[in-house]
């Protein structure tokens, strides 16, 4: 448990209380990808603006981050950005291609390629700090969640050159040249850690480390090739910002939950494939849990959706702390009205 920063206006927010395993007035709720394509106001704000440009424009970041807070009444804002923003900031040539995802012009495949990955320093991302400051001023008692991509997920994009279904080049490097792999991940751990610290230094109340692709790994490979680097990010952050809770989340990571929690966090994110009851058991009841409604159920009839939401809230009560969320991100064609109803139901329960 982190010690609360009682000077912060967010210190008594339901999210911070749940993360610290303290009694809450209501179960806090927010949604991964709540700021995005499901909202018509987002599509209007982003019209004609490339993704990376949007992420580096403080006024636009502020507006987009605030949109779901205004509309849904969620208990936290998630900083509008992308996990590859810090990679662009250190000078890598990459783009986020609509319908594809991050695409890297020159993938990282050799030791010489590491020279293109300098450390991230705060002066490389002044716009990120400015965006956070603007948001914190607007949000008042509502916490802002900062985030970064974990070293493994960032490495996969860099080695593959973009999204991958099998991560074959990534795993080939991991096993075939483990020293190069560890050196790459060490650099990415510095970049991810610095990116989180910039956000917390500017006022973010919580941070989340996303390891989107970790579920593609065996537990043995995770522990040998990935966990030490995620641990470095999370431990370094805790040393710099001991009062700011850390959420650690991955997709398809039921097999890895225990190891991911032990890598360093106050809240373990649980995707929709594992019940919160099982997650609490696997992590020894030592961590708050976050999750874990299947995003596809937002398309089901209300009666079925309501039943599942009630089940998740009930399961969450058995955890030391519970933050209601989806088990992955909001799907682009989700009806925003349904999300608002879910927030209202969780708050009522």
Task: Outline the structure in words.
Helix 13 packs across helix 14 (336-348). This protein has helices spanning 14-19, 40-46, 51-55, 58-72, 85-89, 126-139, 151-160, 168-176, 178-201, 219-240, 257-262, 276-282, 302-316, 336-348; strands at 77-78, 94-97, 101-104, 144-149, 206-211, 246-250, 267-269, 288-293, 322-326. The mean pLDDT is 95. The radius of gyration is 19 Å and the shape is globular. The chain has a seven-stranded parallel beta sheet. 50% of the residues are buried. The chain has one domain: Alpha-Beta Barrel (TIM Barrel), CATH 3.20.20.210. By secondary structure, the protein is α/β, with parallel strands linked by helices.
Strand neighbour order, sheet with most strands: 1-4-5-6-7-8-9
- Can you tell me the CATH class? Alpha Beta
Helix content: 40-55%
| Average pLDDT reading | 95
Largest beta-sheet details: 7 strands, parallel
- Beta-strand fraction estimate: 5-15%
Count of extended strands: 9
Describe the global form: globular
> What string, H for helix and E for strand, traces the elements in order?
HHHHEHEEHEHHHEHEHEHEHEH
CATH topology: TIM Barrel
> Count of helices?
14
Question: Do you know the CATH architecture?
Answer: Alpha-Beta Barrel
Question: What is the number of independent domains?
Answer: 1
Terminal CA distance reads 25 Å
List strands and helices in order, with pairings.
Elements: H1 14-19, H2 40-46, H3 51-55, H4 58-72, E1 77-78, H5 85-89, E2 94-97, E3 101-104, H6 126-139, E4 144-149, H7 151-160, H8 168-176, H9 178-201, E5 206-211, H10 219-240, E6 246-250, H11 257-262, E7 267-269, H12 276-282, E8 288-293, H13 302-316, E9 322-326, H14 336-348
Parallel strand pairs: 1-4, 4-5, 5-6, 6-7, 7-8, 8-9
Antiparallel strand pairs: 2-3
Helix pairs in contact: 2-4, 4-6, 7-8, 7-9, 8-9, 9-10, 13-14
């Amino acid at each position: 448990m982190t010690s609360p920063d009682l000077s912060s206006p967010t210190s008594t927010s339901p999210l911070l209380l749940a993360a610290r395993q303290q009694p809450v007035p209501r179960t806090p709720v927010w949604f991964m990808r709540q700021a995005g394509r499901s909202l018509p106001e987002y599509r209007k704000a982003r019209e004609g603006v490339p993704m990376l440009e949007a992420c580096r424009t403080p006024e636009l970041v502020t507006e987009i981050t605030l949109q779901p807070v205004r509309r849904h009444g969620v208990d936290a804002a998630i900083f509008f950005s992308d996990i590859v923003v810090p990679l662009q900031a250190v000078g890598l040539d990459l783009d986020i291609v609509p319908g594809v995802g991050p695409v890297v012009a020159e993938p990282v495949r050799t030791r010489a390629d590491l020279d293109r990955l300098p450390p991230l320093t705060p002066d490389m991302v002044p716009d990120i700090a400015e965006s956070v400051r603007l948001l914190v001023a607007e949000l008042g008692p509502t916490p802002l969640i900062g985030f970064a991509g974990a070293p493994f997920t960032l490495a996969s994009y860099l080695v593959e050159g973009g999204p991958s279904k099998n991560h074959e080049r990534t795993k080939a490097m991991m096993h075939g040249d483990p020293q190069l792999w560890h050196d790459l991940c060490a650099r990415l751990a510095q970049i991810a850690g610095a990116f989180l610290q910039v956000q917390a230094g500017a006022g973010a109340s919580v941070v989340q480390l996303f390891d989107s692709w970790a579920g593609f790994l065996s537990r043995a490979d995770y522990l040998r090739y990935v966990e030490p680097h995620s641990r470095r990010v999370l431990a370094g952050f805790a040393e710099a910002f001991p009062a700011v809770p850390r959420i650690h989340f991955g997709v398809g990571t039921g097999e890895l939950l225990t190891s991911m929690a032990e890598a360093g966090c106050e809240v373990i994110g649980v995707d929709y494939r594992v019940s919160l009851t099982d997650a609490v058991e696997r992590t020894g009841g030592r961590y708050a849990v976050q999750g874990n409604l299947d995003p596809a159920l937002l398309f089901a009839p209300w009666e079925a959706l309501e039943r599942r939401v009630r089940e998740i809230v009930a399961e969450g009560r058995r955890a030391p702390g519970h933050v209601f969320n989806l088990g992955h991100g909001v799907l682009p064609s989700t009806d925003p009205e349904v999300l608002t109803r879910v927030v209202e139901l969780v708050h009522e329960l």
